[in-house]
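Example 3.2
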Amino acid sequence: MPVELLRSLARSTLPMTVEDIGEIDRLRVLAAAGLVRAVLPDVGARVQRAEVLSLSPEGLETLRRAFPAQQLKFEVQRQHSGSQSAARGQGQAQRLDS
């Protein structure tokens, strides 16, 4: 379920690389909904590898509503990932060259 992946990403150190095809598909859903910023491969690309840059403010709000007891942990991750994504530039989903 994409919200569980979002929750897992909030607990991770970002940016991070994802190579599992199922997780990449869930990342596509999260990125399309504007909940994460990620570099995604084309659907038919030979190499399936994505890089999750950060959770968006909308993604953090989704987590706050879905898991209200864990709000503090998400807030800490937001500050950490936000500084890294700012260094990489602002933007929604991007594509990796394959």
